[in-house]
Amino acid sequence: MESPGLAPLQMVIAIVIFYIVLGFFLETFSMMPTTVPLIAPIILSLGYDPVWFGILLMVLLEMALITPPIGINLYVIQGIRDDIRFNDVAIGSLPFVITMTITAVVLISFPQLALWLPDYVTGLR
After folding, report:
1. How many CB atoms lie within 10 A of CB 52?
2. For burial by CB atoms within 10 Å, which of 14, 56, 100, 123 has the most?
3. Quick one: which of 60, 69, 62, 104 has its CA closest to 89?
């Protein structure tokens, strides 16, 4: 099998971008079983921790729930409040999308933050 020629960090960034774009069109319950069996072996072969990838994946999947046009949670909020337009709900979700993007960047930059509690509980470190 031929390598795409990307460094491990570049590959992780490409996977994050893939999940963000995929989140625009699919909801999370269909994204996870269709993509994780393909992406997880790549992450593991790059030497990344599977727990860290699971935490990063959950942040990315939760971001998919609030990004238009298929953001399921946006439709829930729209259904609760009949007096506002969907565009207002989508614009209102932008601070949360930005915060989740920053969270993903921090998790990629400092994987120890995601692994501290699991390592502490299991006594690995």
Report:
1. 18
2. 56
3. 69
For the chain, list residues with pLDDT below 70.
1-4, 124-125
Around Cβ 7, how many Cβ atoms within 10 Å?
9
For the entire predicted model, the pTM comes to 0.84
Residues 6+ apart with CB under 8 A from 7: none
Sign (positive or negative) of CA dihedral 73, 75, 79, 85? positive
CA 59 vs CA 19, 22, 86, 107: distances in Å:
10, 14, 23, 10
Segment 72-97, tens digit of pLDDT: 888 888 888 878 888 888 888 899 99
Nearest Cα to Cα of residue 56 among 25, 14, 96, 100: 100
Q: How far apart are CA 4 and CA 2, in angstroms?
A: 7
Give me the pLDDT at residue 125, please: 61
Residue 75: alpha-carbon gap to chain centroid: 20
